[in-house]
């Protein structure tokens, strides 16, 4: 498929101004190339070892080894109990828009699931920060493979009130399993 | 700085196997190039319009316009009340490892903040899904600029128990403000 196929979307309603149109044109050419800020040390060396599916618990400890040139970016990170880690599905090839996840035998859209086969192969894991040793962040709750490239780390700041959270097909699959 | 500078990190402790070493070498060459899966329609056209700093509330409604070729990936997304949107800081140049955020007059590391000037310019916003119309996701709580490229959407599944959450310098800055 041509990388310009998406331009057919640019209808008059969305294009409120030439500036927005120009930005979308440019975005197709100038999207960033990702670079690792570090690598995960994890007990998992094969995808089959990682707990998956309904009720899977991620209890493994691991280390986020940040590259020395990025270490100043960790300043004051010790104060946060939980971190959002963005990383690359570096052993996943291509993407699948609709597929059956390990937690259900029915297919769902990739953007309604945590499938590794995504248009942009970015994974997200919330970890608990146990301690920092220089450029090493010792964390609890890893679900990445050993050697996974880390793209970004952000502090986990707040929750959505539990009573307002709906979990779609995942909640339904859990119901059926009971 | 050379893109190979990070290789100095590769000590014997981290390199548990040749396989991991090889993967790290390859990652420096084969990281993915991001592509937009869609663009944000937002009321904000200038960064100064976006609520920032302590207690900032993101109450704006917006639309995630997904490109038609990715629409099948939205299958079953309607069941989720909240979505994690990953997007590109496409109007941010370069990165700053330590800087003062709008919520504090003291500098903090980029990985302990939500600064737009990150090594990988990926933004993250939790939005509430109001409704879906084909490839348009109408959402509440946008803090992106109009025209921002969307990289990924994931369902928001669970919370960290509030009593276990620590918020570091942000909580301290809030204390000082009171």
Outline of the structure:
The structure is a homodimer of 178-residue chains. Chain A contains two helices and eight strands, in the order H-E-E-E-E-E-E-E-E-H.
Can you walk me through this structure?
The structure is a homodimer of 178-residue chains. Chain A has one domain: YaeB-like (Elongation Factor Tu (Ef-tu), domain 3, Beta Barrel). In chain A, 13% of the residues lie in helices and 27% in strands. Chain A is built from two helices and eight strands; from the N terminus they run αββββββββα. The model of chain A is unreliable at 1-8 (pLDDT under 50). Chains A and B meet through α1, β3, β5, β6 and β8 of A and α1, β3, β5, β6 and β8 of B.
The description of the largest β-sheet of chain A is: 6 strands, antiparallel, barrel
Helix content of chain A: 10-25%
What portion of residues of chain A belong to β-strands? Answer: 25-35%
Which stretches of chain A of 5+ consecutive residues score pLDDT under 50? 1-8
Specify the number of helices of chain A: 2
**CATH homologous superfamily classification of chain A:** YaeB-like
C-alpha geometry of chain A:
globular
Most extensive interface: pair and counts? Answer: A-B, 90 and 90 residues
Q: What would the average pLDDT of chain A be, to the nearest integer? A: 85
Radius of gyration of chain A: 19 Å
Q: Indicate the CATH topology of chain A.
A: Elongation Factor Tu (Ef-tu), domain 3
Tally of separate domains of chain A: 1
Number of strands of chain A: 8
CATH C-level category of chain A: Mainly Beta
In CATH terms, what is the architecture of chain A? Beta Barrel
Looking at the chains present, what oligomeric state does this protein adopt?
A: homodimer
Content-based structural category of chain A: alpha+beta
If strands are numbered along the chain, what order do they take across the biggest sheet of chain A? 1-2-7-6-3-8
Note the run of SSEs of chain A as H and E. HEEEEEEEEH
